[in-house]
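Students often ask what a 'structure token' actually looks like in practice. Rather than answer in the abstract, let us consider Probable succinyl-diaminopimelate desuccinylase, a protein of 294 residues. Its sequence is given first.
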Amino acid sequence: AEKKELNELLQGLIQIKSVNPPGNEAQIANFIKKFLLKNNIHSNLVPLEEGRSSVIAKIEGKEEKNITLCGHIDTVRVKEEDWTKPAFQGLIENGKMYGRGASDMKGGVAAILYAAVLLKRRGIVPKKTVQLALTADEEWGYRGAKNLVDGGYFDRTDFIIITEPSNLQVSTGEKGELWIRAKFYGKSAHGSTPEVGINTIIPGSEFVVNITERYEKIFEADPFWGKTSMNIGQFRGGVQVNIVPNYSEIQLDFRVISEEDKEKAVELVRKTGEEIAKKYKVRFAEEIFNYHPP
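Now compare that with the structural description of the same chain:
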């Protein structure tokens, strides 16, 4: 009966779209609030912005200090046409549930909620208060968690357990997230006279090849933390086929294991870009547009 109830809870979470952007977590937050209330657990919605909320709840313990169980209620985007199973149904086949967020991380959120329900049903009074913190906007800026920190909700927290999918392996740290734009500025011209313009896709392409080779030589693996990773996630350039592109932009996603590697990554982008810009007589600039420390 408990397994069936837990499966139905996870299905209910999956069936509510909370794809970020835009998030729209208010609907799933209200679903969670009603589920907890049905099981005699009071909760509060903590607004982030219009249509977006996080959820806070507590199982009172013998001490005011708490252990916080934390998970996010938004998911990454989905192209339903690319799925072989329904993305927002919670279909169960051969003992597995399929759906956007089943792993990351509505499964973890369901585990948090059901653990709290079982504590309540069985009349267990924990030594420390157990706080549930279910956050909005994890996938696109962590603003929900920051909003809770700024609101003082973690002031009495001794430990936080985050139920991200980890193959049941305990993780004690996380790589930092560093996003950089590498921007090349040239000169536009008509496609019939490319010699009049300066095409920025050419230096941009060389930048991609060059930085990939340099990355392998610069970053070394740490025996405990692993290796800083680099992903070239986007290459933008050109307006239409008959115009010489005067701007190109490469977006890089570094997952850094240290502040030192963050500085290495920025220097790698800058040095590579400036050398190539000089070669092709274009202007180069780098821009950090997202950073969360390791």
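One point worth highlighting: The CA atoms of residues 82 and 100 lie 12 Å apart. Ask yourself how you might have guessed this from the sequence alone, and why that guess would often be unreliable.
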